[in-house]
Design a protein that fits this description.
about 160 residues, Ubiquitin-like (UB roll), DNA polymerase, domain 1, elongated
Length: about 160
Amino acid sequence: MGELIDYQLCVNGREHDVADSWLGESLLYVLRERLGLPGSKNACEQGECGSCSVLMDGKLVCSCMVLAASAVGADIVTVEGLSAGENDLSDVQAAFLAEGGVQCGFCTPGFVVSVHDLLEHNPDPTELEIREAVSGNLCRCTGYGRILAAVQAAQETRRR
């Protein structure tokens, strides 16, 4: 398996110790299995479905494609880190619930992180820009109509 290493990751504004880690562990694996942050989902492990999306230094990345050890020194934000408090919902999460953009919920964390990223960089996206921003996320049960409605609802909330 190789040499085991120790390092720290800054996730959701907190430093986390990662001990006895194999150098080849993905950021997704470390977030879920070592740090107990299950929001990012493990689906394709190929960077194709978007269910593991997180922000790394303000950029949207598929955490399954990032070696955790390479994220040392980066600021990582998961879906758990988007809300104001532990029991609060972010505006995007609330919009997904209100608009029915959630069914099984497996893809939802990736969509929420992607939409949050979109609205942070472009507070007034067109429908085409919204579709492009979520094109890296796959949903098999909700259908994209409710998801697009949730994005527009989050836009409206941020305009107020």
